[in-house]
Design goal:
By secondary structure, this protein is an alpha+beta fold. It is 53% helix and 13% strand. Strands 1-2 form a two-stranded antiparallel ribbon. β1 and β2 form a beta hairpin. α1 packs across α2. The radius of gyration is 12 Å and the shape is globular. 27% of the residues are buried. InterPro entries: WH-like_DNA-bd_sf, WH_DNA-bd_sf. Keywords: Plasmid.
Amino acid sequence: MISNLPNASKLIMQTLDKMQSSNKNSFNKEDLSLRSQVRRGDLNNALNWIEALGLVDYSSSGRQKLYSLTPLGVKAFEKFNDLFNTLRDEVRE
C-alpha cells in the first residue's frame, strides 16, 4: 500500500519525520507545503491519503490545522523507510 502512495504524500511523511526528530512536532499547511516542496494545490489530496491510513493527524489551533505524525505514522515510517523514500515516476495530465 505504501508503495502506491502518491509522491506528494511520501514527501510530506519525510518532512514530518525530519521535523519530529528535530523537536518541531507540527506544521500548518503553508509551512508543510514549503518544506516538503509539495504544491499547495496538491497538498490537500496528499494529506487525505495519509490521513485516511492513520499516519498523520491534525489538531486545531485557532483557524489553522497543525499536522503531525501519529504514533502509527512514526512506526510505519521507521519500518518502511525505504518505501517512503522511493519516489515513483508520475505522469501529470
